[in-house]
Amino acid sequence: SALNESAMEKAGIIKIGVPLLTAEPDGRIRSVLSARCEALEAPFTSVESDGEKTSIDVQEDHTAFDVSTSMWGDLRLQTPLVGEHQAVNGALAVALLERMPPRFLPDRDAVLDGVSRVHWPGRAQVEHLDGTTWVFDIAHNTAAATALASVLGRLELPRPIVVLTAVLGDKDWHEMLPPLFDKADHAVLTQAPSAPLARRWDPHEAAAKAGVGIAEIRTDFDDALDRARELAGSGTIVVSGSAHTVGDVLRGRGLELS
Fold it and tell me: What single DSSP character describes residue 158?
């Protein structure tokens, strides 16, 4: 099955005797990873990904969550990255830090400080500009788009919500777009100016197959931006689909890219 193929592909990274840490949420895939680790005598650790158990609090400018460690005790961490998935990523990073050689081990304050100062533009980045709320998220695959949809569902964003998107043609937009469109009132499909010509998608096909009833096409990028602003008004524009799409809008708005 596709699931088994995915699990075995992930298991290919496991090396003899080398510890594996994972936040994989699918129990079937975790079982494959665990079995492979046992066969290779590689220590296996699964990091908690249950939002209720880890008391995840998602706000538009941060995510707070609990992590229990053997090295630093119970920690209440806060990261500027937004989304439940970022709490899981943070917990995985802390679990990895616990296993560093003694000379590289940070102290408790360094862990708290480090997580609080993570900087990663274009990852559920919320900005308020000229009366409109903007959410910038690269979300260039199905898992990332699903995570972004979860963020949109958790934040109390002003409506209407307009998705402005351009996806690269070799990405699985058939699976990426529906979760986002489910959270949106409108969608504008376009082309990112910086996207390589050979990798550009066909927004007309995407609108016909995934955006019926919600999507319209503006192949000119500036025209698409104007249309998204017109539709959103004092609501929210979600810019997503690729690093090119997000980067082109951030650059055009004079915002930081790195």
Answer: P
DSSP-based three-state secondary structure for 120: coil
Along the chain (258 residues), what's the average pLDDT of each consecutive run of 10 residues? Answer: 80 94 91 95 86 79 94 96 94 94 95 96 94 96 95 97 97 95 97 96 92 90 97 98 96 73
For residue 2, give the DSSP letter.
Answer: H
Query: Structure tokens of 46?
Result: 């699964």
Please tell me the distance from the alpha carbon of residue 240 to that of residue 135, in angstroms, as a whole number: 8
Identify the CATH homologous superfamily for domain 2-116: Mur-like, catalytic domain (3.40.1190.10)
The CATH number of domain 125-252, selected from 3.30.420.130, 3.90.25.10, 3.90.190.20, 3.10.150.10: 3.90.190.20
As a dihedral over the C-alpha atoms of residue 63, residue 69, residue 74, residue 78, rounded to 10 degrees, the angle is -20
How many Å apart are CA 135 and CA 255, to the nearest integer?
A: 13
Prediction pTM value = 0.89
Give the Cα separation of 181 and 8 in Å (integer): 32
